[in-house]
Amino acid sequence: MKILAMLKSMARVTLLVFICTLSIEMAKAQMVENSVPAPTNINQTQCPCILPDNSVVFQVKAPNAQKIQIDLGKKYDMVKGADGVWSVRTKPIVPGFHYYFLVIDDVPVADPASQSFFGTGKMASAIDIPEKGADFYTVKDVPHGAICSKYYFSSVTNSWRRLFVYTPPGYEANPSVKYPVVYIQHGGGEDETGWANQGKTDIILDNLIAEGKAKPMLVVIANGNVSAGGGGYSSEAMASFKTEMTENIVPFIDKSFRTLANPKNRAMCGLSMGGGQSFYVGLQSLDVFGSVGIFSSGIFGGIRNPSGSTFDAEKEIPGLLSKSAEFNKKLDLFYISCGEQDMRIEHTKKAVETMKKSGLEVEFNSFPGDHEWQVWRKSLHDFASRVFK
Amino acid sequence: MKILAMLKSMARVTLLVFICTLSIEMAKAQMVENSVPAPTNINQTQCPCILPDNSVVFQVKAPNAQKIQIDLGKKYDMVKGADGVWSVRTKPIVPGFHYYFLVIDDVPVADPASQSFFGTGKMASAIDIPEKGADFYTVKDVPHGAICSKYYFSSVTNSWRRLFVYTPPGYEANPSVKYPVVYIQHGGGEDETGWANQGKTDIILDNLIAEGKAKPMLVVIANGNVSAGGGGYSSEAMASFKTEMTENIVPFIDKSFRTLANPKNRAMCGLSMGGGQSFYVGLQSLDVFGSVGIFSSGIFGGIRNPSGSTFDAEKEIPGLLSKSAEFNKKLDLFYISCGEQDMRIEHTKKAVETMKKSGLEVEFNSFPGDHEWQVWRKSLHDFASRVFK
Fold first, then answer.
1. Which residue(s) pair with A221 in the sheet?
2. pLDDT digits (tens, 9 = 90+) for B14-46
3. For chain A, how long is the longest CA-to-CA vector?
4. Burial group, residue A385, by CB count within 10 angstroms (0-12, 13-18, 19+)
């Protein structure tokens, strides 16, 4: 058809320029033997690519740049090839999800070869290294739920805010059934997209529910940054978020979805800063939440701190140790987890030990990994399989 | 509380580093008088900022870069200040949503100061210039629907794919009600996130429905890139997408949501490449779709093409002109729109004229603007207020 020739030329000129660009990049990219493109790459880009030892080759075409690095926490200098393509092979990287930046002449930016995720307070690149045998966050041929975005009005920020709600398979088909609800919070420098994208909440829950390992439940994924400068741990920030969660978010969810609206069927959990929010807001609101989960939180100490002060559970939550029986009665599940290579692990274990000695019932688990999403995916997987039982 | 000092120090060290970074950037950023930060900025970043004449000031801190530009289609050279902050003020920019890149030593990347959007085949920055008096895509105090992400299996790509579904206010509360469905497609170099993010589909529909100007309806936002190298206009690409839409997507939606499953209550529309898909797939599937909308599509010609061929509606869709009465009977709404500054406008008007002369009922509308999202937001607003009446 004549028009198709015309359309192709138009496409060439306007719509599909990006494909040509990509093709050039991909042509330039030396194919690395025995490597596979990272699942977090965009548009079937070949690099970043992962080698059998989990080292990663990054490449970028930049004939006129002076210096390019990959910042994965550790910075790698890239080397410029004759073709103007810079590349570097990293040390082996532990499986899981890692933020990184392309640093062009000392300006950290997102890598055009990668999907972008909101982390560290801006759009960051990330590389997700598959973990052998770990398919609990892989989309499978099982009944799938949905993640829905909703707007609610916040009396704390005096603005409309977006949150996500995971609804399990069957929610649509069974309009008379009501469900328990987990409220899950992101970490510092992240927002409500964290558990939806990086965390793969929907896939993890779909698989757990299909295996019969978790009850069908809703998972509410809200933005915890309601104070100036994001979230934070100050008493003021915690108080603001407590108001947001208990007076705005929970009532909105109970009004908008078919929920079992009682503490027994409400849980709050979160990672890092969100774990701190779950500790303070959750344990201070046992009339709202009957289960609390704390993943990789710094609240138990573990980072060099000038004051040298250590964690005092009784001071933070009066009665948590001295009246542990009362807390045991109100808490169906009090869960704490941490990555085994996370600098927070020792203080976390020490805090758990102290709580247990005082008679507080705590379920603790740890997973290989540092302060990273693979640990948090496993923490959600573990928490969701224990809660509401 | 002692622990707060500790936590603050931890925060300083690990979690909130990004805030410090941002603060520095913001301190460095010369506040531009009478300017407002763009709504597409990330984390309350001050720049890009918009001046009263809709010119925009961009800034980036890059003491060691050799050359930095802003690529808004037109490239602007940024000027380096003594503090290592580069900046530029653009010419006045027409209101609406515009993709752009920060070009550092000739490497185009997303601007860390901006939200990122999938466009031009990668994560791009964008600046959304507010249009005075246009609040049809502003979140208001009206009943809100939801946008839900779902996985479906594609027999065309032989993989699980994600799509979004807008459900109107009341969908949750009225489990016996069934709804008409609009299937809406993105442009070349974009994906299913386009109409959900750039297009603000949920906000536009919420507002239209609240005003009583549109019927409550579902809007299905799928990924139209099912062929090698994305979408495209070839017969093969169109055939693949026709299979995807009619054999995979529509049956999945009718199975998963409460739909009025007949042509009268199904519409297909799209922008640019998605408009081409709507023209071919929609008009070739009138047993599935009773309404078709084509926004800013290149299919009518309008871009210099070597073959010099012009659009022949009868050749593309046999009978469209010669048996227009049959098409009029099957089509409840055949809608075409284009931006008034879009190079496609003249050929589009000419095609519409030819169709009307042949007796085909076409509703045509145009909006100020080039090949851009503000025109497509208005096209959806216009289409949704006419369809299913």
1. A164, A184
2. 333 333 343 334 434 557 889 999 999 998 889
3. 83
4. middle
How far apart, in whole angstroms, are the C-alpha atoms of residue B175 and residue B162? 24
Determine whether the interchain pair A298/B175 forms a contact, defined as Cβ–Cβ distance below 8 Å. no
Chosen for mutation from B45, B122, B271 (greatest number of chain A CBs closer than 10 Å) is B122
Distances (CA, A) of B199 to A163, B127, B184, B192: 19, 13, 11, 10
pTM for the structure as a whole: 0.91
- Do the beta carbons of residue B301 and residue B311 sit within 8 Å? yes
Measured between CA atoms, the residue of chain B closest to residue A121 is B18
Residues contacting A212, CB < 8 A, separation 6+: none
**CA R_g for chain A:** 23
Interchain pair A106, B63: CB under 8 A: yes
Q: Between chains, do A104 and B65 touch, taking CB under 8 Å as contact?
A: yes
Is A154:A141 a contact under the CB 8 Å cutoff?
no
pLDDT digits (tens, 9 = 90+) for B255-299: 999 999 999 999 999 999 999 999 999 999 999 999 999 999 999
Nearest CA in chain B to A120: B18
Rounded to whole angstroms, how far apart are CA atoms B143 and A256? 11
Contacts of A115 in chain B (CB under 8 A): 123
Quote the ipTM score: 0.90
* Chain B: closest CA distance from residue A35 (Å): 22
